[in-house]
Amino acid sequence: MNAAVERAFAEQLDASDPLASARAEFLMPSREDGSDSIYLCGHSLGLQPRGVARVLAEELEHWAKLAVEGHFASSRPWLPYHEQLSASLARLVGASPLEVVAMNSLTVNLHLMLASFYRPRPGRDAIVIEKRAFSSDQYAVASQIRHHGIDPSSALIELAPRPGEDVLRTEDICSLLEREGSRIATVMLPGVQYLSGQRFDLEAITRCARRLGCAVGFDLAHAIGNVPLRLHDWDVDFAVWCSYKYLNAGPGAIGGCFVHERHARSFELPRLAGWWGHDKDSRFQMPATFQPIAGAEGWQLSNPPIFAAAPLLASLPMFDAAGMDGLRAKSLKLTGYLQALLQSQLSDALTIITPGDPEARGCQLSIRLRRSPADARAVFDSLARQGVVCDWREPDIIRVAPVPLYNSFLEVWQFVRALQQALQ
Length: 424
Ligand SMILES: Cc1ncc(COP(=O)(O)O)c(C=O)c1O
What we know:
By secondary structure, the protein is of the alpha/beta class. The chain has 14 helices and 15 strands. It has helices at 3-15, 51-66, 70-73, 83-93, 106-117, 135-147, 152-155, 170-180, 202-211, 231-234, 306-322, 324-346, 373-385, 409-423, and strands at 26-27, 38-39, 48-49, 100-102, 126-130, 156-159, 184-190, 215-219, 238-241, 256-259, 350-352, 365-369, 388-389, 391-393, 397-400. The strands form 4 sheets. It has a 7-stranded mixed β-sheet with strand order 4-10-9-8-7-5-6, sandwiched between helices. A 4-stranded antiparallel β-sheet has the order 11-12-15-14. β7, α9 and β8 (215-219) form a beta-alpha-beta unit. α1 (3-15) packs antiparallel against α14, α12 (324-346) runs parallel beside α14 (409-423) and α13 (373-385) packs across α14 (409-423). The longest helix has 23 residues, at 324-346. Pyridoxal-5'-phosphate binds next to α5 and α6.
């Protein structure tokens, strides 16, 4: 097929895309010549929704005009600010509003959750994570084990793909859990793996872990807003996420947390407490004894960071409007199109390490070039010079994520052209 025909085909796919208009709600970074970059990096930092400037300006104005009264008298009072986010977040993770809360950042939330859901006891003190887990998760988990006076070399069980493979098999995860179950206190895995783009079967893993008496939680940094989730029905104990990736809430934006309803009133569960997790009716009476709020809100520490939370007010309504089913339907087509182009045009030059089965991935594809790491890095640099924004992860992976809310089929086609060019 010649380039003009291919391009026309991509444009036709865009013309019949029911979500195409959402793109206009985002600000695209531009290249030196002023044209739009080909931004395929939403797995790292999502684009800025146009509405963010307005909500931030409004909060600045509330602060300027109302000062301390803004906590109560503003059109969006700051005291219960995070509550406005709960319904949409609950829809995204498949939960009830009682089970979710926007707070802190991801790693902080992971520590708070492990303080409650990693309760080692003699003979059952291990945590299962992946060998290639995101570094922050590795550090958090190992430090929690040490915090209990236990040596991670005996209590950290790391899951690795089979030799020569890049992704974990669900059957291997479950057979490890079966084998080691009696000594596992907590299982902590990703929803979508940051490097390979593999989507984990959270339902199967949770079923297996819970049957064996292990607590189970997930890092949803790369899953929320990317793949459909049903945490409540799957019976997951806890989950944590950030909102600067697929939720487009900006660098350092407020993170979030899910705690299953089963634990909503488990007030005896040890937890790290702060005044914002205390019963709302008596919070300002400053009682000496901590009485947690029922549900995920009971794990809050501090009053909500308004400027880190406000962007979600611009971003989450777009998810509500499109719906995760609609987004996923487009995502399957968009990433499927990228996969088909790469496989039909560049299969000699690269391997896609992300699972080929669309059900076992989100929108990201992770590409390994059949070159030395130095040559592969040069290809990546050439992509950047051509105005493509994706990212490089050591030692040799290029991550590319066409995001259904703002990327087009034409951009996917243009990316593959740019990669062909870079490979020459
Ligand atoms: C999978 C994963 N886990 C954890 C983190 C750490 O997030 P934070 O810096 O918000 O704690 C990231 C950040 O990109 C991530 O991708």
